[in-house]
């Protein structure tokens, strides 16, 4: 009896470790991580890329450098999988959401640097849209405020200021994408121009009610639908990688914006579950189920994930400067050599000595939405030293988190526990201080690679390795719980000092 070649191959595969490759393209670095089907990290490759600041409030990346760095991590991961005699069965991609790239459809050459989500150059465009009294209609459709944070006004700025973009746009030879779209387009060798619903929901052009690009909004913005990618579910078929590009044909089966990916990686599948990520920025996401909650306290309404053409929604608060503040201490102020030093430095100070830093380096996000605000330091005395500044930066992230969660509370959503992740949560002092200030229990997971893990989970879900979200949830494990220990009096005093600093910033 003859056994078919396909059956032999499938039989062999049973004895080969199956891996999922997560591409985690962040604001300061690109990573590729190999996970097994139990959610365990097998291998990781990571490289930073240059941050470009052409003018105050402007933040850019070189798209070609992002591609080069990301491709390098992918190839290193593939090489490692072969050394392990394992098989990569699927790819998931997470990305830095609102960051905007426009490129030549024929050549693939970007017409301008990527304009990063932190960038504030489109303030005037946003002000003009607000003067036209468009914010309410935009918000009802997109869940977002008119703010430089989102992609639409970045597209508009490039079209209005970059000559080559104008020409290609007129000739219908221009494409737009957030970083996920740009990577998919290149990985598939120009065959697929796609994004997912979570990334589309951060552009200010996508109607989260109809699940379509909104024609009326596009008309108001004077942006043609011809440049926009097709929007798919978060777990879906995004094409296969080109053998010509990476040497392997591997299906891409999941795409999520980084914060939504972290929510999935934290198994926040139930209504009311909350995660908070502390990376370059900080982002609190609460799952609101199939119901959209239009915040009365300046939080965003967004898509948490979309599966089988059904949206699960979320409330989100965005802090622009979290880990980026630590980078500022290291790269600009030269006060530290690396982030790991901060915990020891902070512990050397008994208290904050009344020093507050409001790190509005690129304006303030939720709940203030003040793009023109700039950072301030308050409480300086002759006794203030550099260690005070380090502590103040770290503390500021906890205070900003309090502001977001206070807004959620006012909207009728009071979380009892928060799952946290991101680079900053390796600092246990910060996590305890955060728990003290927000007065909520905090869970730190065993696997802290939650963003990459989230897209790995959904990629596995799409190809049938995980049968349900419940099965994924069973994989999530708690490592540590932090409970509030600070007295109410001290908490109130610290928050009062922070609120005074905020008022000065907004003045």
Q: Please, could you describe this protein's structure?
A:
The protein has 18 helices and 22 strands. By secondary structure, it is α/β, with parallel strands linked by helices. The protein folds into two domains: 18-256, Nucleotidyltransferase, domain 5 (2-Layer Sandwich); 267-445 and 477-507, Nucleotidyltransferase, domain 5 (2-Layer Sandwich), CATH 3.30.420. The strands form seven sheets. Strands 16-17-15-14-20-21-22 form a seven-stranded mixed β-sheet. The longest helix has 25 residues, at 386-410. It is globular.
Compose a concise summary of this entry.
The chain has helices spanning 5-13, 63-83, 123-131, 135-142, 151-161, 163-170, 179-187, 197-200, 215-221, 243-246, 258-265, 323-331, 342-347, 386-410, 428-438, 450-462, 469-475, 488-506; strands at residues 18-25, 29-36, 41-48, 60-61, 87-95, 101-104, 114-115, 174-177, 194-196, 206-207, 212-213, 230-232, 252-257, 274-278, 282-289, 300-307, 310-319, 356-358, 376-378, 417-421, 441-445, 478-482. With 507 residues, it is of the alpha/beta class.
